[in-house]
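Now for one specimen:
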Amino acid sequence: MSLLNPVLLPPKVKAYLSQGERFIKWDDETTVASPVILRVDPKGYYLYWTYQSKEMEFLDITSIRDTRFGKFAKMPKSQKLRDVFNMDFPDNSFLLKTLTVVSGPDMVDLTFHNFVSYKENVGKVWAEDVLALVKHPLTANASRSTFLDKILVKLKMQLNSEGKIPVKNFFQMFPADRKRVEAALSACHLPKGKPGGAR
């Protein structure tokens, strides 16, 4: 990069973020703690986790407002979860394993996604590197082609057992434009009416 022609490069996703790490995702309201594999897609568009049932949840990197670890992460209030994580034992290393990802459309309507790693200091490294992706200038100022690429990346991550994109995923991606999605699928000679159909 020269001074005369500066180019802002897209964010680099560290290999360990793409490979994923085992965490336990917990929720105080439901008092459920579920093992997940937490990952960031190779282009840095989504933080996502996969449950043992293979169900996936996605969080757009642009919706993340903060990442927290250690004493700044959320702590379970429910006694059931506190027992699961042995929090009441004096030599507990829970604080060294925590990660909270704060997301929302603004700084008022926030959702807290809470994770606990199996190893110490993993939450800290994840919090720092995910926040670095969030704060990258191109994350918030993406081009039109980047938004199209994000859609494609998300659809390709949700393949069925046959390696095809389920038709229902197109409709979930564009819920307000059902007729336009049907027309586009029809123009491409792809199935459009069967919810279980695949591309």
